[in-house]
Amino acid sequence: VLRHSYSQDASPRNLTIAGTDFPTDTWTNVPQSILSQYGRKLHIQPDHPLSITRKLVESRFPGFRNHNTLPGVVTVDQNFDSLSFAPDHPGRSRTDTYYINKDTLLRTHTTAHEVDVFRQNSSDGWTLSADVYRRDAVDRSHYPIFHQMEGALTWDRSAFHSWEACTDAIRASFERLPNHDLVVEDPNPPFHAERNPLQEKYHSADEAEIVAAHLKRSLEDMVVAIFTAADQALTASGQSSESEKDPLKVRWVEAFFPHTSPSWEMEVWWRGDWLEVLGCGVIDQPLLIRANQPDRIGWAFGIGLERIAMLLFGIPDIRLFWSKDPRFLKQFSDAGPMRRFQPFSKHPPAPRDVAFWLPKTLEGPVVAETPASTSSAPNSAGGQQTSPPRNNTTEAEAAFHENDLMEIVRTIAGDSVEDVRLIDSFTHPKSQRRSLCYRIEYRSLERTLTTEEVNGMHERVCGEMVGRFGVEIR
Ligand code: FA5
Ligand code: MG
Question: Mean pLDDT of all residues in the chain?
């Protein structure tokens, strides 16, 4: 039943996106609220903090080609199949991803372009920045559209006569990297047979180890350089900075991506917590083979530009990046000097709760996320990473998924919502019915919302919950 509710809503036969018509089908779930933000290209908008951040990161990879204008509509093959995503990977699910139709979607990560870029040219390093789209939680560090930068560097193995010679060549370029004195925690072994395997079929241990060392050092150098530059600029302009309070600290955590192995995430210490800023690893060799580059070996990373920009400028709420308010935009300039964001008056929050009984048909695996924190991406599949495998059966589809509520709220309240979180859930001992209660924090960044306005939005949210999921409001 539920399966069809979105396609009924998105009833047009075609969706027009940036002037191109796409046929819709039962997979279509991209709402108008997302399409209306499509094509803003904040990462290349002059004087925008995301664009300033992008250029800072790019400047740490001299000689790399920078691709910054690839369109966001890609195929399932580009986004998943070509990257060795398993057929049942939860990232493919309609609860996590915006589908235009069963073959076409809004890219969920910049990795969607890796095979194409490598196919064109693999001998240079490159970066690629773009808007990416995910159905996700609502809070101050998550927004359904955000920006990533992909970066990659490869070496030619056929140019060397042995793995050893290739390893020597990579080591030589490794030694050209600058030394930093950053505090780095990296407690794990370079590979782990189960947790973080070497691609034994393709790579020697030495070769993969030196690629990984080059990767880690390059990324450590990037964060050191960016934060040092920001620090100097801020000190010069007499503004205090986060890093004055706390020295910059990073750590490497083992990770899993279908398109790299071994893989890691880098976390940066920020305001008393570890914040994940990027994922990376040794490129999956089948991916390079698909790109017609079987003789190359290399690394890739994917970084969240909002995460870095929030750290750099002290921007407290991810919605601000979308603001057209001059009080926000006027604070940033490509020409520098770099300045910290000065908050303008905060308007009062308006919390409203929605408590409801799930109908019998929707009981089953209620996918409720843990409360969102800044340190992880609560996209239920852990972003483009791996499982916890969710039941990907029709039953699981029919279950109420928290992201469905998130989207209803976003569609109705737009940027006037700051946070949505589960505050209570229980099962009635006799009837066995499940009850959930969510708190929705309405608050505009730009003005004070009136009580009537908030009540109006909240009534529509409750109405949609009843209409779409047949819940019973308590
Ligand atoms: C990926 O998307 C991988 N494709 C990254 C990658 C590329 C790994 C190349 C290896 C090689 P992940 O889902 O963790 O991974 O997202 C990468 C980064 O994007 C995160 O570290 C975080 O900085 C940022 N990010 C993820 N989800 C969000 C979100 N909802 N809002 C803001 N930033 C996010
Ligand atoms: Mg991640």
Answer: 87
Task: Indicate if 351 and 247 belong to the same structural domain.
Answer: no
Q: Candidates 34, 106, 111, 308: which one to mutate for ligand 1, based on the most atoms within 8 Å of Cβ? A: 111
Would residue 385 count as lying in a domain?
no
Residues 317, 421, single domain; the answer is no
Which domain, by its residues, includes 441?
345-364+399-473
Instruction: Give the pair of three-digit tokens for residue 147.
Output: 């920006």
Whether the pLDDT of residue 306 is over 70: the answer is yes
160 falls in which pLDDT band (50, 70, 90)? confident
Residue 3 lies in a domain: no
User: In terms of domains, do 280 and 425 share one?
Assistant: no
Sign of CA dihedral 163, 168, 174, 179: positive
Q: Out of 62-71, 88-97, 394-403, which region has the weakest mean confidence (pLDDT)?
A: 394-403
Same domain, 323 and 360: no
**Count of domains for the chain:** 2
Q: Is 110 in the pocket of ligand 1 (CB under 6 A)?
A: no
Q: Is the predicted pLDDT of residue 471 greater than 90, yes or no?
A: yes
d(CA 178, CA 373) in angstroms, rounded, equals 34
d(CA 306, CA 121): 28
For the whole model, what pTM was predicted? Answer: 0.86
Q: Is the CB of 256 under 6 A from ligand 1?
A: no
Q: Is the CB of 403 under 6 A from ligand 1?
A: no
